[in-house]
């Protein structure tokens, strides 16, 4: 080959090839590098040919993975060599060895520019290639106009122009300002009239980059793209060398369809019709043939056409046609097409209306889960995960579980996480959910994170119906000869809490339960021992009056661990031992765990976080979320249990046992549980403080402090409300004729909440309603905390929102009963549609014993919550102020009869009203303002 | 955009690497090793696509083709069509085939510099430059001609300068 013709390089390469091992190779490389280095030091003696040879050697060494930290200057200096071969190697090596921030590169800008504007086309090509590969911002600024000139020049050869197009694309990426939108959009459209397909391909890549940033400016290119597609699809004017396995330049077809996907819609009916004709032709005219390359090319075009059809939101008929095609693809022999078929079907899920058609292919997709190719198995898993909903969750999750045992390790973690998420999201009933998770732990315990088994415990704790079932299941798993440690944990926990529910079944006496759990103790790690100790304590508690034999056995274990080196184990052993000597009191102390307050599932959250937020995936996510709420309705319609389901099935993290808080990150919750485990839930007279403790961590503040009266006065004044009674009239708080008297002043509480975001809204001897709010622009997210202060349930709980016309409010389901001393959280979403002073009212009622209580409470979703303070200077403020012309935009009011306030106090007040105080406009006056967010 | 092109043999030795986003050499080597680790465990008659997110970060795809003793690997992002990339590998290989008449690994090893020239005519700064192997050949032949031509020219001035002194 004439091209290389460098003997020295060939010799070096064969030397390297002959090296027996890495060590020899390194020695040879070091020798060569030393040689090159000395030769470069004495640069004068080097001919350009030698330089070129050494630089190639450096590049070869670099590819082998050795750092070449010298000779960069020599490589760059070759660029300015007058002869082609040296210049060429200079350019090639520079673009391989250097990056765009390299200092030497700056030195070359002038030479590069001279090559670009010079007459020599081969030099132009070299320079463009280098800039296109590593050109940075500085190159963009100094070279963009020249490159543009080359691209649109009619005298340049296509060879140069196509490189100029891609070079410009690089420069545009480095600095978008170098392409002037106004001037360039017409040029771009003209470029699309190009006949040469090489130039057209490059120009299309440039267009894709430009429209992806700003499709508005390149609107005129849209019909031209459709024209190009028509030309290619009809195979008009396509030279032989651009026909690849009988298909007219698939790359250009693909790129053109890609460009079209960046335009939101196609408005012109004629263009749209022509495009759909072309697409229809592609969809119908593609068959799977024998030649692999032809298949790949034709399907490259076909899959891009599918993507475009999805983007254009075609009629349902065409969509179903696409799904049918995809259904065909996922069953063909060609693995690439199977792979893309599955991937595109996953994408198809976001198109409404076709999910049902996709579901028809479920069996085939499940088959793909057993494909020999892991890439295809992954796609199948993604698709199954995406298409899962309430209707097919059972089938899909069971299929995943079955597959889990044979799946390769690389996939097991993902698989078990997905199965757990689907089971939680779409569980048709909770016992099924428990089954799934226990199977999951059994089959892939290593991949089941703590989150997953915590969730099961939460569900079981909060659903009484489920408890005997879960305990029985846990007992069954313990009979297996070898079980995963996670299974030991979860079954020990469940049996500790609920094994007494099984007492009459065979093999379930406390003694037997203790025996079978204790068998596992020698095999478990220190993190599990504390859970087992708690279980023993619970078993003791449930067997009062105690069986002396069992008691002695357990006591022996406790005293054995009293000197354990692990603090957690030691502490539990000591405490349980001491507590269990207190006899009947143990029953109160180690009572069943109370229900967990509901929160978003950390598992679902993890799943959401894990999903990359690309448009298509978020669309899928959106769908999934909508379906979740359906699933919830299913689970919530269980009147027998008063479990508060709020929002999602979400609960909190679980403490690993009664007073084992060591693995709780949530300090507040830990405290809560700590308190609970020491308090007798049956205590006849709960003190108010106790409840405060209970609710404490949930951020409910006490009654408003001394500042309240001031604030109360301030509100009407600052809102400029001439008649404060207006607002009050809506919420006739005084109409209440309840025997139960509220604690504290309702109006005062409301006023205080107008200024802050959390606090108590209402309290009486039976219930406390707390509120916590977050405001963002026109959205508000409130949570109502309904806390039952009593030792018996509150029944017929009803909460109705009476929203004024300007607010859109949505309250999640409020459970009908609130269990004794439980707290229910009810999220409430608020959206402000337009400014108004009207106030939303919460109509709340419940029954306690014989008395029924009904209160109407104003909700602090008031005007000022939607304000957004902005800081302005005097220069900005006054022109704006003057440009406003009187009411309703401009109001000036002097308020009289207000108790004088300190300046600082007043500023604080304004701040809590979300108004910005701009100091220094007029001395001793305040100007407050803020734009109001509404949709 | 195409992020990288890797040609390596079935023992994992790189024969040609080109990264279109700058990457320090250690990182390049690590990636090459990891890609090889994935590829060598793949059976025949499976798809040409491999999940590459764990190796190259999110939004990356990997397409490869296995010819005799060589793997041709393209790494690119979601703005490219997978099958079109596979076609492009085919174009690269067909061009090499035309250039070397039944290309084999040795041709690639010893004509390292020519390989760079060919690749630069097909992929430019991570974008598809030319898809017609005939056009690529034309460009490459032109460059070869230039090289031989100037090689003869380099000889002439040398002799002349020798004659002058």
Written account of the structure:
The complex is a heterodimer of chains A (935) and B (165). Chain A is globular, with a radius of gyration of 37 Å. In chain A, α1 (7-18) packs antiparallel against α2 and α4 (72-79) crosses α5 (84-97). In chain A, β3 and β4 form a beta hairpin. Chain A is of the alpha+beta class and 935 residues long. Chain A has 40 helices and 12 strands. In chain A, the strands form 4 sheets. A 5-stranded antiparallel sheet of chain A has the order 3-4-5-8-7. Chain A has a 3-stranded antiparallel sheet with strand order 6-9-10, covered by helices on one side. Residues 612-737 and 923-930 of chain A have low confidence and may be disordered. With 165 residues, chain B is of the alpha+beta class. Helices cover 53% and strands 21% of the residues of chain B. Chain B has 6 helices and 7 strands; from the N terminus they run ββαβαββαααββα. Chain B has helices at residues 25-39, 53-56, 82-100, 105-110, 112-122, 133-164, and strands at 2-9, 14-19, 49-51, 61-67, 70-76, 123-124, 127-128. In chain B, the strands form 2 sheets. A 5-stranded antiparallel sheet of chain B has the order 2-1-5-4-3, with helices on both faces. Chain B has a two-stranded antiparallel sheet with strand order 6-7. In chain B, α3 (82-100) crosses α6 (133-164) and α5 (112-122) crosses α6. The N and C termini of chain B lie far apart (54 Å). Chains A and B meet through α1, α3, α5, α7 and α9 of A and β2, α1, β3, α3 and α5 of B.
Q: What structural class do helix, strand and pairing data of chain A support?
A: alpha+beta
Helix content of chain A: 55-70%
Global geometry of chain A: globular
Mean pLDDT over the full residue set of chain A: 78
Structural class based on helices, strands and sheet pairing of chain B? alpha+beta
